[in-house]
Design goal:
single chain, alpha/beta, Alpha-Beta Plaits, eight-stranded mixed beta sheet, 22 strands, 44% helix, 20% strand, rod-shaped
Length: 636
């Protein structure tokens, strides 16, 4: 049994591990992982108090005042003003592959004089031709491409630092600006050994692979870096073109910083959807904001103020998925009860998210979706297995106890099975107070001798069927049939904890006896009509302590009650076998049972009787039936 259970658990674990691992490898979980990633990025942004990047954007007002595209002389004046204010590097995120109005020579002179100015270009892509920088700086270190990868869902999460284009290695605008700023501090990029990695100050930047972080099978061409969006777009100081040209920007606001010039106009399409924009619903990020994020991140990496977000090896992540699945299945197997499983599932899910969040804050992106999928699948399997097991156990219990207990009692046993059932699946032994009911056919032996077997079984089956139906309807349990006798118990297997519950059991037993007496009269009419003899029934009822439990051998086990109370009920049933009157059913109860009854029953005292096996006499009462309204009124 244990080996079969272990085999089932291991099989479920392997299936879940393979299914989740396969789904992740095929990229089916990527969109969910990207959602978790975007949420983590949005929650982790923490703008610096004094960011090293300043943004200068052409607003819609600037476009109205100066025209669009911004003329060369105006652009040259803005660049000269910023460079003169002490900008460590000036990046221009405006394509200028040909002259635009004004005086092209003025712009060329500024670019020749200011070597820390970097203009954007655009890489060639498929059928789209490249866009060059101004003619005076083409092919030099003052050019950086503006291309930024966009994922299939339209969100920008990666930066392309450098890539090969037209036979030469090209640097991005963000990388060019960061290198200019770092060069002023004596930091230069270094190749790490013979690898493709570069070391930038305190950090060796590792390019992301096609299956890293939140990705599976991503386009990892070139040298790409996950953008951390730490500045959240709000950490940069901002000015308009007019602010610069009209002298509203002081050197103290520019000196020693990287300045990026571009557009912040809503009418010019230069914006990107980013993780924070996806989560919060804010406006997309302008191109200069995105380049600013890249520059700021590269500077922080070089200075050792932040680390690059890395991912553990795929094999290690898969081991984590298998461990999560094993924990989910193990907890489910140990818990079994549905509320416990649901509670454990929610707590476990919260812990998994917390662990991944802490890892993310420490600089590691451990794929969250596969772990969550493994946890949910493991708990789901456990819940399904538990429900199936409970359904099977419930069916077995109902089949086992259906002949002893009413459906209501059997349902109570199932509901409270943890406290009622023992390790073997049978009710655990316990001492309790119950009401024992004995009924027997008077003088039936002589009648049975003259009846044919078919007639005898039909008569007994009708008698037993009526007794069982009435007893079950009143909440009693059939203990056993002894020849033509019926033994029933009220108050098992769930122990009664209050006096009122014990009294109610006694009343139900007596009520069953009275209803049975009425039923016997109806049965006798049918028996006589069929040519069978009428029957008379004796009933004895006693309330007292009993021991209830499963008794027998490993081959045959039976749930029953034993104790002196059982003997008293049996002796009451057999008391004065000559009978009392011609009634078809005689009902005798002990003093303890009578004490439990209320005014709804009509009871006659018969006196004290010495019962077989009892040293002391027992007060015996004859139950006449339900009390009439007049009797109830006088009793009250």
């Amino acid at each position: 049994m244990l080996a079969a259970t272990a085999g089932r658990l291991v099989a479920a674990w392997l299936v879940i591990g393979l299914a989740v691992g396969g789904a992740n490898a095929l990229g089916w979980l990527e969109k969910f992982e990207l959602l978790f990633y975007d949420t983590a990025i949005a929650l982790s942004s923490a703008p610096a108090a004094d960011a090293p990047v300043v943004l200068v954007g052409a607003t819609d007002v600037d476009l109205g005042d100066y025209g669009w595209p911004l003329p060369d002389d105006r652009l040259a004046a803005a660049i000269e003003s910023l460079a003169a204010a002490g900008a460590v590097a000036v990046g221009v995120d405006l394509y200028r592959d040909r002259p635009v109005g004004g005086d092209e020579q003025v712009l060329a002179e500024v670019l020749g004089r200011r070597g820390n100015v970097v203009f954007v270009s655009k890489l060639s892509s498929g059928n789209l031709a490249a866009i060059d920088a101004p003619r005076v700086i083409r092919g030099g270190s003052q050019v950086g491409f503006a291309d930024i990868p966009v994922d299939d869902d339209g969100i920008t999460r990666r930066a392309l630092l450098f890539a090969e284009d037209r036979g030469a290695m090209q640097f991005s605008l963000g990388l060019r600006l960061a290198l200019r700023a770092l060069e002023a501090r004596g930091i230069k990029p270094e190749r790490v050994g013979d690898s493709t990695r570069i070391r930038l100050g305190a950090t060796t930047i590792r390019p992301i692979g096609e299956s890293e972080g939140p990705y599976q099978n991503a386009d990892s061409g070139g040298y790409q870096l996950l953008i951390d969006f730490r500045e959240s777009g709000t950490g940069f100081r901002r000015f308009s073109i007019a602010d610069v040209l009209e002298g509203r920007v002081s050197p103290a606001q520019i000196n020693g910083r990287v300045v990026i010039v571009g557009t912040t106009s809503q009418s010019v399409k230069d914006s990107f959807s980013v993780p924070s924009n996806r989560i919060s619903g804010d406006r997309p990020a302008f191109g200069i904001e995105l380049h600013g994020q890249i520059v700021s991140q590269l500077l922080r990496l070089a200075e050792g103020r932040d680390g690059q977000l890395l991912s553990p090896p795929a094999a290690l992540e898969y081991v984590w998925v298998l461990l999560v699945a094993a924990l989910a299945i193990g907890i489910g197997w140990r818990g079994r009860r549905l509320p416990v499983l649901i509670g454990a599932g929610l707590v476990g899910l919260a812990l998994i998210v917390l662990i991944h969040w802490l890892a993310f804050r420490a600089g590691w992106w451990v794929a969250l979706t596969p772990a969550v999928a493994a946890w949910i699948a493991g708990l789901g399997w456990s819940i399904g297995d538990s429900m199936q097991s409970q359904s099977r156990q419930r069916a077995q219990l109902m089949s086992l106890f259906g002949r002893y207990f009413s459906r209501d009692v059997a349902e109570q046993i199932w509901t409270r099975r943890a406290e009622v059932l023992g390790s073997g699946g049978m009710p655990a032994p316990q001492q309790l107070v119950a009401t024992v009911f004995f009924s027997d056919l008077a003088g039936f032996t002589s009648k049975a001798e003259v009846l044919a077997p078919k007639e005898l079984t039909e008569l007994l089956n009708a008698y037993f069927e009526s007794a069982v139906s009435i007893i079950h309807r009143n909440g009693g349990s059939i203990d056993k049939f002894i020849g033509d006798a019926v033994m029933a118990v009220f108050g098992v297997p769930i122990a009664r904890m209050s006096k009122q519950e014990i009294f109610e059991d006694a009343r139900r037993a007596v009520r069953s006896a009275i209803e049975f007496a009425a039923a016997i009269e109806g049965l006798n009419q049918g028996f006589v009509a069929a040519g069978l003899p009428a029957i008379a029934v004796r009933i004895g009822i006693h309330t007292g302590p009993v021991v209830a439990g499963s008794i027998g051998s490993t081959q045959r086990m039976e749930y029953t009650v034993i104790g002196d109370s059982v003997n008293v009920a049996a002796r009451l049933e057999g008391l004065d076998k000559a009978g009392r009157g011609d009634a078809a059913c005689r009902i005798l109860v002990s003093e303890t049972t009578r004490h439990c009854l209320d005014e709804s029953f009509s009871v006659q005292r018969l006196g004290e009787f010495k019962l077989q096996g009892k040293r002391e006499a027992v007060e015996v009462y004859h139950v006449l039936g339900f009390a009439s309204p007049a009797e109830r009124a006088s009793a009250s």
